[in-house]
Amino acid sequence: MKGKIIKSVAGVYTVISEDDQSYTLKPKGIFRYHGINPKVGDNVDFNDASITMIEERKNSFVRPQIANVDNAILVSSLKRPDLSYELLDRFLINIEEANVQPIIVITKCDLASLVELNDMKEKMAYYSQYYPVFLSSINGIQEIDKFNSLIKGKINVVSGQTGVGKSFLLNYLSPSLKLLTQDISEALGRGKTTTRETSLFDINGTFIADTPGFSSLEYDSIKPTDLKEYYPEFVALLNECRYHQCLHINEPGCIIKEKVMKGEILKSRYASYLKIYDEIKNKKPFYKKEI
C-alpha cells in the first residue's frame, strides 16, 4: 500500500493511505541499519506491519524533521516576543536553502503601538518585494483569501520562534484542531513551547504541519561565499558589481554597499548578512550524515 506520514512520535509513525485510512507503524529494521530516518511528509510504501519503503524526497528539513514541503509559513510576532529582523532573515535563509517557498506572517499586530506598527509595515513593504507577507491579529489573517490561495492543495510547514503564535494560527485556519496555546513567560521573556512533535494536518485538502518551535539556526551546508545567493535583492544585482565573485563586504565598486548607503537595501538585512557570513566563515567543520 502507499500513503503519507502525517505524524511522528518517538519512532512511531502515523500513515494515511490513499483511501484515507490511518495506520500506526514502525519502519522496517533495515532503515535503522542504513541510517535512514522516516519523516513527516514522506510518501511511503507500507504493509499492515511496517513502513517498507520511502519514496525520493524533493526536499528535507533537519529541524523540524519534515520532508516534501511546498511552502514554509514563517511566523514572527510583532510583540511578545518582539519581532527580530535578524532572526527573520536567519529563518528565510534556512527555508530557501531547502528550496521551499517562504510565506511571512507577522502575528500579534494588535499588541503593538502605532509607532511600532508603522515601523513594521514600512520594513515589511521591503520584504514583500521578495516574499509574500501577511499581517495577523487576534481577529485572524488579513487578506485571508490570498493567503489560502497560496497554500491550497500543498504541503505547508508552520515554523518560527517559540511563542509567536503558530498553534493559534492553525486554530484560526481550522478551529476543529483545538491545539494547545500559551502565552510567553513573563519571567524569561520568551515563548513556552506548546507543540511537542511534528504533525501534518489535512485542512480541506491542504496539508499544514505544526512543528516544535526553535530559536537557533545553523548553516552546516552553506559555504560563506554562497550566502549571498540566499538574499534575493543581492541576486537581482549580481551583474552590477565590479567583481563577478563580489562578496559585498570589502570590495570597491560594490553595488550592494552603495544601495545600503542610499537606503535602497535595508540596513538590518545587510547587517544580518555580515553577521551570518562571519559565523559561517569562522565555524569549525562539522560532518554528519542526514538522510
How would you describe what is shown here?
- This protein is of the alpha/beta class and 291 residues long.
- The chain folds into three domains: 2-56, Beta Barrel (OB fold (Dihydrolipoamide Acetyltransferase, E2P)); 66-210, P-loop containing nucleotide triphosphate hydrolases (Rossmann fold); 224-282, Ribonucleotide Reductase Protein R1, domain 1, CATH 1.10.40.50.
- It has helices at 29-33, 85-97, 114-127, 144-151, 166-173, 232-235, 255-262, 267-282; strands at 2-9, 12-17, 22-27, 43-46, 50-54, 60-61, 66-67, 71-77, 101-107, 133-137, 140-141, 155-159, 199-203, 206-210.
- Strands 11-10-9-8-12-14-13 form a seven-stranded mixed beta sheet, sandwiched between helices.
- α2 (85-97) crosses α8 (267-282).
- Mean pLDDT is 87; it is low at 184-195 and 287-291.
Nearest-integer average pLDDT: 87
Helix content: 25-40%
What amount of the residues lies in strands? 15-25%
Class by SSE composition: alpha/beta
Kindly identify the CATH topology of the largest domain.
Answer: Rossmann fold
Can you count the beta strands?
14
User: How many H/I helices?
Assistant: 8
Order of helices and strands: EEEHEEEEEHEHEEHEHEEHHH
Low-confidence stretches: 184-195, 287-291
What is the first-to-last residue Cα distance? Answer: 23 Å
How is the quaternary structure best described? single chain
- Assign the CATH superfamily of the largest domain: P-loop containing nucleotide triphosphate hydrolases
CATH class value of the largest domain: Alpha Beta
Characterize the overall form: globular
Please describe the biggest sheet, giving its number of strands, its sense, and whether it closes into a barrel: 7 strands, mixed
For the largest beta sheet, what order do the strands appear in spatially? 11-10-9-8-12-14-13
CATH architecture of the largest domain: 3-Layer(aba) Sandwich
The rounded Rg comes to 20 Å
